[in-house]
Automatic annotation (TrEMBL), chain A:
Source superkingdom: Bacteria
Annotated family: Belongs to the ABC transporter superfamily.
GO molecular function: ATP binding
Keywords: ATP-binding, Cell membrane, Membrane, Nucleotide-binding, Repeat, Sugar transport, Translocase, Transport
Stretches assigned to the ABC transporter domain: 6-242, 249-498
UniProt source species: Ancylobacter crimeensis
Pfam families assigned to the protein according to its UniProt record, in alphabetical order: ABC_tran
This protein's name: Sugar ABC transporter ATP-binding protein
SMART domains: AAA
Automatic annotation (TrEMBL), chain C:
Pfam family, one: BPD_transp_2
UniProt cross-references to InterPro entries, sorted A to Z: ABC_transp_permease
Keywords: Cell inner membrane, Cell membrane, Membrane, Transmembrane, Transmembrane helix, Transport
CDD domains, A to Z: TM_PBP1_transp_AraH_like
Cell compartment(s), UniProt: Cell membrane
Transmembrane stretches, start-end: 12-33, 39-60, 67-86, 92-113, 120-147, 167-187, 217-242, 254-285, 297-316
Protein name, per record: ABC transporter permease
Membrane topology qualifier: Multi-pass membrane protein
Length: 498, 337, 323
């Protein structure tokens, strides 16, 4: 192997109360495409921050071109040719494409003035390097996510870049845009630049990378050429456990009246003619690439897409789903995708977070009953096995897994008949994940809840669902029976949907 | 296991202190101000008359501050409170002087009915004004700052249109009682303030509406996803805020027996100051009526002390502004820890 | 074709069209509107509000809001005029520099709180306005410097005008337009100017890309204060008196004009051209109220409605764009 561009030897990084990276050896060679895999909290973001000079490490060595470096800073990292594209791209929507591209260069040259002609020239050069064309005068705010990402890549490549780090680059892209991104990444490699992908999407890792490094709990647990990996192996390495052999089996009556029956549902241009049934006790998985319309479908069922088309019935009775209140009234609960921005009231107590959707239950006449709210919250805490003794504690102080359980618990207090989970275990540690799965299966079996589980996590779907729907371009493409299916089968199906 | 238990206890205690830290801090500030003023001006400050006059003056400001806090709880602000207060007072004045002048033959019952009608009119105006704010903010999705800046200007403009500039005088005697009278030896404005404070405190801490406001102010997006009726709650909070502002206008015009388009201009700053000092988070989700009540009393003690030391009103304005910045700086430091 | 479309979609175009429509309408009602005298007066009325609007524009682009500039303008004006009166100084350049510097210092005072303590701009500027106005009136004085005490040099400067076809166009209009061009160049052609947009878009990203965001905040509020200070002294030289209680309530007109011009309180958006048009539109509306013999007590109501309508339209447009 060629001499590594950047190498870490025995690097350890500690934070108060935890070791984020534990004696890591890591290297990336010029023109190599390396994938860094790992769940949230595995240490991969810490590694990126060390390689880009944001964090100082506590022990070990960092070598660039074989020479040890000390006092590595963001500036030094940029000077060494390291560029990071974060998930939010760090672009400026009110500046033009040309200005966004030129800004870094102008800043590094300590310029005081901005000449439009120069911005144009720099911008055109940067885009030409990637072989793409774009309106340089367009404001970045008016571009699609994929185009913004290209601007971000073009900007990152303007300096003498030798290593480009991309943090979850495919998260916000549709299938075809991912293809375009990969073409660009190969182009970059051809110029001798190394690319470090950080991802948790197995299939994409296998497709684009040459080598894969898997992190778990601050340690590097697997490393090798991509050819040696399968999705199962990556997952096992990431989670440290085999996907549960024990899959969910539904033994209900297929002829019974469905709990939720969706017919010809449509939302704008994004969801077309979706029909499916959800029976009591079923856990139905819903997967598809980003932009497939799966979240819009869920939001429509939750009353957040007023003016949607089609018909939804609950136990045979037609529902009006124009507001969230109507959906909640009908017994539909929705655990949103983004726990922090859509789910939790971070500075409020666990109890208040719990009763938020069932305030009526703890209200008598005009007054709230604090005692009842506390009792209800305490019961749910015990029921969901949330690790706390005090429901007056701020919810923000709980771990991700416990926070997720607070939100699920909140909905259980409304007595739901249909539970929609969007990414139920994203950013949740393994122990919590298993516990959440167990609870969801319990709810389906014992309480006869109908569950719709939206997830990117194929093993999660295989293990917990008795049916899996695949969505593509706003329509349901397949209704799969997971019995006898393996992960790769699903991935193959998803791949053909591109 | 036992170690863990005692640690939990300690955590409990520290949390309890930090939760009421603000109230404690406020009480200390108030006591300090009290001690300082008693020491500087013992003869004037410690007289019964001084406290009695404070009890007439501070309630209108306290009510405005509570109105402001209601808007701040959902992360908004109500810059139109002064405009609403003046408009309410002026409309009542117009009602008494031009539409329904006093009729000596009507007797006491007739006069009381007339004043009651005036009160309803003024409160109704506040309710309508607050509804306008609420609709613009909740349904029209206009930033509260700009919406209430604009409506505040509209209300003040209407005051100008109605009065043409000079103050309206000639309120009935019973109207004056609202601002100047005493009941059981206690100032009527003070009683009104206490009633409002208790009512709003109960509403915020013991009713679903209050809980809704705190949740919406903490995270409006999550509130939508939790199925809360955010639009309606925000609308209601501005309606209430407008009505309270109108009540403050009634007390103000009752106390001074006049209503004018530019009365109480400095109240806006003071109301914001009282909210911030009283522990209301201008970004939403936190605030108590108790904090407001203590903060307004602290400021009034300070103001009366300065007046005794012959500080001009302008210098007192300077002190308000400086105090506001200082309190914000202190909060910033505290949050940093 | 695309260019035409983007041109049509720009808020400046909309404001311009409204301006033309109102002018045609008023001209039709009262042909005297088109007389050079009246038009020049209209332009003159743009000057002070316009310069202050440039000040608020800078702050709004950075994602803030400023209600302290009227107090700063009053302080800069009054202190400078008092100093001129006391020293008997006869020039104008130095006084204007002085007033600008006073404004600058006040603006930097805002920046300290906003940048260092991350405080909410509205509350900071409410506080600083009260501090500055309170100090000015409480320590410096409350008496008006009227025409007999005003420095003659200032009066002469404020009176200077150009004779165009028998009508006099105040030279101050050119001062205003000159400043507008300078601010435009600053905002669009300098790194610091662009950094204000970047900061208003996303402060965190601006930092990450390498902007010195602390300096950005200081420059934005400092420039705003400096412009306010300059406008303050210019105002007194145009009306020949210096009243320390002046400019009360100006924040409403000025913010209305800036919002009309398409700037967003959330930062990142706004242009000098839009602001200049917004100011012109606002002055035109107020002026036409007079021409149409509507009692001037209605002005406040109209300005309030303008703020509400302009923001409602912007909010509606943004929501449509997002959908």
């Amino acid at each position: 192997m060629a001499e590594p561009l950047i190498e870490l030897r025995g690097v350890t990084k500690r934070f108060p109360g935890m070791t984020a990276l534990d004696a890591i050896d890591f290297r990336i060679a010029p023109a190599e495409i390396l994938c860094l895999a790992g769940e949230n909290g595995s240490g991969k973001s810490t590694l990126i921050k060390i390689v880009s000079g944001v964090y100082a490490y506590d022990e070990g060595e960092l070598l660039i071109d074989g020479a040890p470096v000390s006092g590595f800073s963001p500036r030094a990292a940029i000077a060494a040719g390291v560029q990071v594209i974060y998930q939010d791209f760090s672009l400026f929507p009110s500046l033009t494409v040309a200005e966004n591209l030129a800004m870094g260069r102008l800043l590094s040259e300590n310029r005081r003035l901005v000449a439009p002609a120069e911005c144009q020239r720099l911008g055109a050069e940067a885009l030409a390097r990637l072989d793409v064309t774009m309106d340089l005068d367009a404001r970045v705010g008016s571009l699609s996510t994929a185009d913004r990402q290209i601007v971000a890549i073009a900007r990152a490549l303007m300096s003498r870049t030798r290593l480009l780090i991309m943090d979850e680059p495919t998260t916000a892209l549709t299938g075809r845009e991912v293809e375009r991104l990969f073409a660009i990444v190969r182009e970059i490699k051809a110029k001798g630049i190394a690319v470090l992908f950080v991802s948790h999407k197995m299939r994409e890792m296998l497709e684009i990378s040459e080598r894969i490094c898997v992190f778990r709990n601050g340690r590097k647990v697997e490393e090798g050429p991509t050819a040696e990996f399968t999705e199962g192996r990556i997952t096992r390495a990431m989670t440290g456990q085999d996907i549960g052999q024990e899959r969910y089996v539904w033994s209900g009556d297929i002829a019974a009246e469905p709990r939720l029956s969706v017919r010809a549902l449509g939302v704008g241009e994004r969801v077309h003619d979706v029909s499916f049934d959800l029976r009591a006790g079923e856990i139905v998985g819903l997967s598809g690439l980003l932009g497939s319309g799966r979240t819009e479908l869920a939001l429509a069922l939750f009353g957040m897409e007023p003016g949607h088309r089609g018909e939804v019935r609950m136990d045979g009775a037609p529902l009006k789903l124009e507001t969230v209140q109507q959906a909640v009234e009908a017994g539909i609960a929705y655990v949103p995708e983004d726990r922090l921005s859509e789910g939790l009231f971070m500075t409020q107590s666990i109890a208040r977070n719990m009763v938020a959707s069932a305030i009526d239950r703890v209200t008598h006449g005009p007054f709230l009953s604090d005692g009842e709210a506390t009792a209800l919250a305490e019961r749910t805490v015990a029921d969901m096995r949330i690790a706390t003794t005090d429901v007056d504690k701020q919810v923000g102080k709980l771990s991700g897994g416990n926070q997720q359980r607070v939100i699920i618990g909140r909905w259980l207090l409304t007595g739901p008949r249909v539970l929609i989970l969007n990414g139920p275990t994203v950013g949740v540690d393994i122990g919590s994940k298993a516990e959440i799965h167990r609870r969801i299966r319990d709810l389906a079996v014992k309480d006869g809840l109908a569950v719709l589980m939206i997830s990117d996590d194929v093993p999660e779907l295989l293990q917990n669902c008795n049916r899996i729907l695949l969505m593509h371009r706003g329509a349901i493409e397949a209704d799969l029976d997971p019995r006898g299916l393996e992960e790769d089968d699903i991935h193959t199906r998803l791949k053909t949907l591109r | 296991m036992r170690g863990k238990d005692t640690m939990d206890k300690r955590l409990d205690l520290s949390r309890f202190i930090s939760r009421d830290n603000n109230i404690l801090q406020l009480l200390v500030i108030t006591a300090l101000i009290f001690a300082l003023m008693s020491w500087l001006e013992p003869n004037k400050f410690l007289r019964y008359y001084n406290f009695e006059s404070i009890s007439f003056i501070f309630p209108e400001l306290g009510i405005v501050a509570i109105a402001m806090m209601l808007a701040m709880l959902t992360g908004g602000i109500d810059l139109s409170v002064i405009g609403i207060a003046n408009l309410a007072g002026i409309l009542a004045g117009v009602f008494f002087t031009r539409i329904y002048p006093g009729d000596p033959s009507a007797g006491m019952a007739g006069e009381i009915a007339r004043v009651a009608a005036g009160v309803m009119l003024a409160l109704g105006v506040g309710l309508i004004a607050g509804t306008l704010n609420g609709l613009l903010i909740a349904k029209g999705r206009i930033t509260p700052i700009l919406a209430t800046l604009g409506t505040g200007q509209m209300f003040t403009g209407l005051c100008m249109v109605l009065t043409g500039g000079p103050a309206i005088v000639g309120f009935p005697a019973y109207w004056g009682l609202i601002g100047n009278g005493k009941l059981f030896g206690i100032a009527v404005p003070l009683l009104l303030f206490l009633a409002v404070a208790v009512l709003i405190a109960v509403m915020l801490t013991k009713t679903p509406f209050g809980l809704n406001l705190f949740l919406i102010g903490t995270n409006p997006r999550a509130a939508v996803f939790a199925g809360l009726k955010t639009e309606r709650m925000v609308l209601w909070s501005y309606m209430l805020s407008g009505t309270l502002a109108a009540l403050a206008g009634i007390v103000l015009s009752g106390r001074t027996n006049a209503a004018k388009s530019d009365y109480g201009n400095s109240y806006l700053l003071q109301a914001v100051l009282i909210c911030v000092l009283g522990g209301t988070n201008p970004a939403g989700g936190r605030g108590t009526v108790l904090g407001i009540a203590i903060a307004v009393i602290a400021l009034m003690l300070l103001a009366s002390g300065f007046q005794m030391m012959r500080f001009s009103n302008h210098l007192i304005d300077f002190i308000w502004g400086g105090f506001l910045l200082l309190v914000m700086v202190l909060n910033a430091f505290r949050n940093r820890e | 074709m695309d260019r035409l479309k983007t041109l049509l979609r720009r808020s400046e175009t909309a404001v311009f069209v409204i301006v033309v429509l109102i002018m045609v309408l008023i001209g039709a009602i009262n042909p005297a509107f088109w007389q050079a005298d009246n038009l020049f007066n209209l332009l003159r009325a743009n000057v002070i509000i316009g310069i202050m609007a440039l000040s608020v524009l800078t702050v709004m682009i950075s994602g803030g809001i400023d209600v302290s500039f009227p107090a700063f303008a009053a302080a800069a004006m009054y202190l400078t005029v008092l100093a001129m009166e006391a020293t008997g100084y006869q020039g104008v350049v130095l006084p204007f520099i002085g007033a600008t510097l006073i404004g600058l210092v006040c603006g930097l005072f805002n920046a300290v709180f906003i940048s260092t303590f991350r405080m909410i701009p509205l509350i900071v500027t409410l506080g600083s306005a009260s501090v500055v106005r309170g100090l000015l009136l409480g320590l410096v004085g409350t008496s008006i410097v009227n025409i007999d005490r005003m420095p003659p040099a200032l009066i002469a400067f404020g009176r200077s005008s150009l004779d165009i076809g028998g009508a006099k166009l105040s030279a101050m209009v050119f001062v205003y337009l000159g400043l507008a061009v300078l601010v435009w160049l600053f905002l669009t052609r300098t790194m610091t100017g662009r950094s204000i947009f970047a900061y208003g878009d996303d402060a965190e990203s601006a930092k990450r890309v390498g902007f010195n965001t602390r300096r950005t905040v200081y420059v934005a509020y400092g420039l705003a204060g400096a412009l306010a200070g300059f406008a303050g002294l210019l105002h007194s030289s145009m009306i020949w008196l210096a009243n320390p209680r002046d400019f009360v309530g100006y924040e409403l007109d000025v913010i209305a004009a800036v919002v009309l011009g398409g700037a967003s309180i959330f930062g990142g958006r706004g242009s000098v051209l839009g602001t200049v048009l917004g100011v012109f539109l606002l002055v035109l509306i107020k002026n036409s109220l007079i021409i149409m013999r509507i009692d001037n007590t209605w002005q406040g109501v109209v300005v309030g409605c303008v703020i509400v309508l302009a923001t409602a339209l912007t909010a509606w447009r943004d929501r449509k764009a997002a959908a």
